[in-house]
Amino acid sequence: MNRPDRPVHGRFAPSPTGPLHAGSLVAALASWLDARSRGGSWRVRIEDVDRPRCSEAAAEDILRQLDRCGLVGDEPPWWQSRRGAAYAGALEQLVAAGLAYPCACTRKDIEAAAAQAGWVHERHGERPYPGTCRPERGGLAGRPARAWRLHTGRAGGGVEIAWDDRRLGPQRQVVEEAVGDFVLRRADGLWAYQLAVVVDDAEQGISDVVRGADLTDNTARQILLQRALGLPTPRYLHTPLVLAADGAKLSKQNGAAPLDLADPVQALRRAASVLGLVLRDTDGVADTLAAACEAWRAQRWPD
Hints:
Elements: E1 9-12, H1 22-36, E2 41-46, H2 56-68, E3 78-79, H3 84-96, E4 100-103, H4 107-116, E5 147-150, H5 152-155, E6 161-165, E7 169-173, H6 175-178, E8 183-185, H7 193-203, E9 208-212, H8 219-229, E10 235-239, H9 264-274, H10 285-299
Parallel strand pairs: 1-2, 2-3, 9-10
Antiparallel strand pairs: 4-5, 5-8, 6-7
């Protein structure tokens, strides 16, 4: 059972680059079930910091899709595009503590430094930043600043970050080796996902992050940032992915079809089956969600 001193607050945080697809509904349903089955609250956060790729129209479509499935938040949605002051404050805190620094490197610069160091870049894998612009290595060296990065060495990223995923079990990563000094503010002035999600999870009091398994690799970076900013670390549960016909993760980038909600009950049942939930016969959205809550509790996910 959940500890009484830590109430459950969950969230679903879609990026509005298009409508929800089948994989999105799995993540939304899982986060909703995890909060509701334990008497907690649930929020929707629109992660639209990447404004060139996001649109308000897509966000409104997503909210309508969630509403049709009975997945309605307990407070109005948050929009990351309106949260710039909070992210700026967090960056200022890191800079003041000597944990963030400006970077002048282009992608080509990073590739050249990696090649010189003999690093082999795996396709679709992270390309660790070699720390070229770290202050102790000469900083910008007269070049104009482009982005801001976390100094993982000073922030504790040189040691292993370990956590227990509620579905996947023990996880660990040395951030400095796996990804290097990652970006907090991009060269185009937009806020990076890692900083925005950490600041928002803390301010919204999120106790449990339930999201797709493709985001598991982000967890160590976020825990590192939470520690650097003095913020609490939520519990994490990463759900199974819905795969396309070629075995790749179903996503908007690979042409995933918009979620078919002609029959929302069947859409919810299909999403529940991906989560390994066996539902009793149901009639209507509310009854289906109640059955899914029963099945989620029966799974006995660790708290």
